[in-house]
Structures are given as C-alpha cells and as structure tokens.
Amino acid sequence: MSEKTAVTPAGHTTPPAKFSHGVRKGNLLQVAGQVAFGPAVEGRAPAPVGPGLREQTIQTLRNVQAVLEEGGATWEDAMMVRVYLTDTSHFAEFNAVYDEFFADLRQPPSARTTVYVGLPAGLLVEIDALAVLD
Amino acid sequence: MSEKTAVTPAGHTTPPAKFSHGVRKGNLLQVAGQVAFGPAVEGRAPAPVGPGLREQTIQTLRNVQAVLEEGGATWEDAMMVRVYLTDTSHFAEFNAVYDEFFADLRQPPSARTTVYVGLPAGLLVEIDALAVLD
Amino acid sequence: MSEKTAVTPAGHTTPPAKFSHGVRKGNLLQVAGQVAFGPAVEGRAPAPVGPGLREQTIQTLRNVQAVLEEGGATWEDAMMVRVYLTDTSHFAEFNAVYDEFFADLRQPPSARTTVYVGLPAGLLVEIDALAVLD
To answer: What are the start and end residues of every segment in region (Disordered) (chains A, B, C) (predicted)?
Structure first.
C-alpha cells in the first residue's frame, strides 16, 4: 500500500555503506544519523565543518533538516531527536545552540534523548530523528 | 489531521533544553530519555534519587511511566524501551529490578536495547520508550 | 483494535530480562537489540559465535532478520537499523560486511545510525531495527 522511498538531499555526501540518509513509508520518516559534514565535494572525502561544537551542532541539525525537508516534513513533525555527544562537558553549550536553533518552533518540540558515546575522530556530535507527517 | 501534542507530567522537572518529555501524534507516543530525577522542587536544580542503581532504576522507570500515562498509554502499549547504563557490571542487578517492575505486565513486554554509555555525573541509567496506542 | 504481539524466533536464546525479541502492533515491528549469539542450546549460557567482527556481524544481522521474518517482515520493510559497535577502528570492516549482507536488497536500504558504546565482554556489535509493514 504505502511505498518505501529513500530520502536523499542533493548536497549530502554519499553514505559510507548501504543505508539511506532518510526513509519514508506511509506517514513515518526516519532520518539516519547525521554528522557535521559539509556539502559533498567530488573527489574529496567527507569532512566536518569547523572543529568546534557550535559549528558542528548547527551543521548537523541542518543536515537532519535537509533530510526532513526532502522527505516532505519539517522540524514541526519531529517526534524524537536522538543526540550523541562525546563529552559530558559539552552538554550546556550544546543545549544553548539547540535552543537557538529551535527558537522559532511553533509546535511542541520533539522528545529527545542525549547520551555520550564514541564517534569517529573529529566528530563531536551525531543526531538522528523520527518524524510523523500529517 | 492528527495533532502533535507535548506530554508533560505535572511533577516532572523542566527539560534542560527545548525538548518535550513526551510527544504524541496519531497513535504514536514517544517518551524522551528519562533519568532518576525526583519530583521538581522550585528553586532547586534537578537531582537524582539515591546514589544506588536500584533506586535510580525504579525512579527512572516511574518517570517514563508518568509520561506514558500523561499521554494516555501504559507500559502495555510500549513497543520499545531503550536502556542506557554506564557500567556493564550493572546489567544483572538492573535486570532484576526491571523484572520486578514489570512482574504484573499482562501483555507481551516491549522490545529492549541496552547499551553502555557516558551519562552526566551522578546518573547511572537513562531510559526512553516508544509506545503505540490502540 | 490492533493487538500487540511478541515476536520470538524458535532458535533464539531466552532474553535475560522481561523483554521481547520483537514486538508487533499494527503495522509497526520493533526488533530488540540483537547480538551475535548462536542458536539456544539447552543447559548452556548464550554465547557469541566466533570472536571476530565479521562472524559476529553476520550472526547479529541474521538474528535481527529472524525476528523480522517471524513478525511477517523482511529487510525490505526496515526503516531504521541502529548499530552499536565498540571500537571506531571496526567501522570500515563492519561496513564491508554490511554491504555484502545487503547486496541483494531490492528496495531502498533502511536509514542507519552507528555509534560506539560499551557492550558486555566478548560482544563487538549489537543491532536493533524498526520496520513498517505494508
């Protein structure tokens, strides 16, 4: 009945394995774990923007947003945001950036879980999201 | 069609950033990562109950349950419980408390994933849940 | 309206606590975190197959697949795969095995998040999945 479709924003780097940046089926849109990679550049390996947490957080959220939008959703449709940080000392700064980013949200913000894990060298944050479309 | 609503139990501490303790849209209810904070006390920072794993686990499960109930669900509706512990040596005790907590469940228990991560100082466990309402 | 049912493949080891290997309700199928345990053997504690990442990854994916199939789904229905590795140096080899495993997928692959966490001794990978059935 409802088709499963891959959701791939134009500028996104190619995933390092056989997975989709986003998948939509019915009214569910799942966004894969996004990191702070800037737009894909042919012939260059993906690289995170700036070394700082603020830049990486904003770029990561933008990358999630690009998948949401490509799938026909917005942050207003997000049910859950999963945040993976690498250092508990980053929590306060991360939250400050997060709150700025979502300052204009009109609907209730999504739920969120934040935990501290290991990530590949150079990455300070990874974020995925689940959205339910109207 | 289906509205997105925030689910906020009365006694819960205010989230440290722009996210909801729970979100419901359609028949999906997503509970944000809960920790062992006791009821909010005005003018005091949120603090976990007792230092031990048993107390923290029970309080964390109660906090998840409060969101489920505020959203019109119960544990019987839970599809997935995500458990974040900080030490693999806690697994056996955690499971014992978990099984006690769910001793009276009438429907099949939810699925579960348990991994070991970093959490803010003083916290031994974080749990989130996804429920599908009838 | 839609019943919640436990999904338990025949050969799977008994979960170490009160949770289900899979749960289906409506068109949602949630697979619990699977590890590289081989088929259950009466009287023996669950043990992972082989010590290597390749063997563990294949067995873990097979265990997820068994739950999907027992619940009436296939990998084609998977929306999200959550991968928990223990060492960032495993990423490339894991991806190679992952891509082999999914070489024949006809629909868009699921979304995926990969993070690095602690797991019980001997386990190198844990994977869970969310599927939406037609």
So the answer is: 1-21
Residues of A in contact with B17 (CB under 8 A): 94-95, 98-99, 112
Dist CA B26 CA B39 (whole Å): 29
Query: Which CATH number does the domain housing residue C120 bear?
Result: 3.30.1330.40
Residue C83: both structure tokens together: 């991968």
Among the listed residues A116, A108, A58, the one whose alpha carbon sits nearest the alpha carbon of residue A79: A108
- pLDDT tens digits along A17-65: 999 999 999 999 999 999 999 999 999 999 999 889 999 999 999 999 9
DSSP bridge pairs for A24: A5, A29
Q: Minimal CA–CA distance to B83: which of B15, B27, B31, B7? A: B31
Domain extent, residue B88, equals 4-132
The amino acid sitting at B47 is: A
A16 vs C contacts (CB less than 8 Å):
91, 95
Q: How close, in Å, is residue A66 to chain C by CA atoms?
A: 14
ipTM: 0.97
Q: Which subunits have 3 or more CB–CB pairs within 8 Å of chain C?
A: A, B
Structure tokens at A107: 């609907």
* Overall domain count for chain B: 1
How far apart CA B18 and CA B27 sit, in angstroms, is: 23
